[in-house]
Amino acid sequence: MADQNALSRLPKIDQVLAQAALAEALDQLPRALVLRAARQSVDQLRRDIIHGAAPPEAELSAQAVAARAADLARQMARPSLRGLINATGVVVHTNLGRSVLAEQAIARIVATNGSYSNLEYNLEGGRRGSRYEHVAGVLREITGAEAALVVNNNAAAVFLALQSLAAGREVIVSRGQLVEIGGSFRIPDVMARSGAILREVGATNKTHIHDYERAISDQTALLLKVHTSNFAVVGFHQEVALPELVALGRKRGLPVMDDLGSGCFVDLAAFGLPREPTVQDALAMGADLVAFSGDKLLGGPQAGILLGRADLIGLLRQNPINRALRIDKLTLAALEATLELYRDPQKAIEQIPTLRMLSTPYDELATRAAALLRKLRALKLPRLAVRGLRGTSLVGGGALPLAAPDSRLLEVAIEGRSATALEAALRAWRKPIICRLDDGRLLMDMRTILPADWAEIIAACKALAA
Ligand SMILES: *Cc1c(COP(=O)(O)O)cnc(C)c1O
């Protein structure tokens, strides 16, 4: 039931805009945006009144509406894609942007994108060049691969390879490797769209070399191995190792491709994580083509990297679809700078945040936790209770699903707020702080918290517990 009296008291837009509460917003933000916020604020009140939920008299004043509109305008002006604090302990968190770029990668984006660049220009010859040459050299140098090609992401890399090498023909894959990676990337579906025909062999838990052997026919174009990424089969389980598959491929004149998923250039066993074959291992074992992501364990920007035989890479590169999957110049800049760091593996571990986080030992995390706890306790806020406890982190990015490196966690509690409410409040903080909820407790994992994040965490706790 509309309250005509309340409707007639709604302020006019001009009145709202003239309020002091909007002066700052009008000064700092585009006028059109503030106007839209003022209109929306009045419209919302009108709808409330029409629906019989008339707000209290005080909320209908021009001043009160202007204050609402100022908040709304700031909200509308805020970028949608924003930086945040990952306190979840999932290092390669796909929802949170996967990998934090190394300083060198950020600097390279800045250095090459505020001006024209030699993206597709050969400086020596003064003629047209190729964007693919910029990282091919350093990739060959680090991995020993014969040739390299980079595309938009690994999904694109796998699609391009299947489309180029196997359209209209068969690709043999183990039933234990027909994975869904998330974000609807499923090997059978990608295969279907590429025009290649999936020839499944083996059982979910066991595939033998003779399964592949028997499936080979004159229709076969490729033997494909897929990293099972985000899941693990335990118990009665067997897959064919890459060297065995390569030997079969050689014997029958068929190329072998390994979709490594995450792909890594350094041996993670050195950090106490399960041993994963590196990209170099896969190439040394004779894979004709390998594909992997740039932003998973590699710690670079989103990209799909293909390495292997020059003749196969050549076919992929010349495929007209490659143009639709091509890498952009911001990515290329960040990728080249990241790859350069791998020339010295120790430097890569120290300077690439993903590797640095994964390699941080428990004792170091405990020392950091103690220091952050001291700062939080020094706030002397009676409602804030913090303590350190032992827990585990996750690698994420569909890599090493069973690995759970020891970590130091902070449990944060604020009197009068449930853990769920605190989690939401930290998520709504000006620099959002994404935490873990576990059994009614709010936890922050020191492994993924950057030193630069501390000040915001302290400020948020201070504001929320005041
Ligand atoms: C992650 C992954 C992909 C997709 O890679 P994106 O870079 O996310 O496109 C493909 N295959 C495997 C095995 C993966 O783990």
TrEMBL record:
Stored Gene3D superfamilies: 3.90.1150.180, Type I PLP-dependent aspartate aminotransferase-like (Major domain)
GO biological process: conversion of seryl-tRNAsec to selenocys-tRNAsec; selenocysteine incorporation
Pathway(s) where this gene product acts: Aminoacyl-tRNA biosynthesis; selenocysteinyl-tRNA(Sec) biosynthesis; selenocysteinyl-tRNA(Sec) from L-seryl-tRNA(Sec) (bacterial route): step 1/1
Any GO molecular function: L-seryl-tRNA(Sec) selenium transferase activity
Tagged with keyword Protein biosynthesis: yes
Keyword S-adenosyl-L-methionine: no
Span of domain L-seryl-tRNA selenium transferase N-terminal: 7-46
One of the record's GO cellular component terms: cytoplasm
Keyword set, alphabetical order: Cytoplasm, Protein biosynthesis, Pyridoxal phosphate, Selenium, Transferase
Pfam assignment, any one: SelA
Cofactor(s) named in the record: pyridoxal 5'-phosphate
Compartments, record wording: Cytoplasm
EC number of this enzyme: 2.9.1.1
Residues annotated with N6-(pyridoxal phosphate)lysine modification: 296
Reactions it catalyzes: L-seryl-tRNA(Sec) + selenophosphate + H(+) = L-selenocysteinyl-tRNA(Sec) + phosphate
InterPro entries in alphabetical order: PyrdxlP-dep_Trfase, PyrdxlP-dep_Trfase_major, SelA-like, SelA_trans, SelA_trans_N_dom
Protein family membership: Belongs to the SelA family.
Function: Converts seryl-tRNA(Sec) to selenocysteinyl-tRNA(Sec) required for selenoprotein biosynthesis.
HAMAP family: SelA
Listed name of the protein: L-seryl-tRNA(Sec) selenium transferase
Taxonomic source organism: Desulfarculus baarsii (strain ATCC 33931 / DSM 2075 / LMG 7858 / VKM B-1802 / 2st14)
Gene: selA
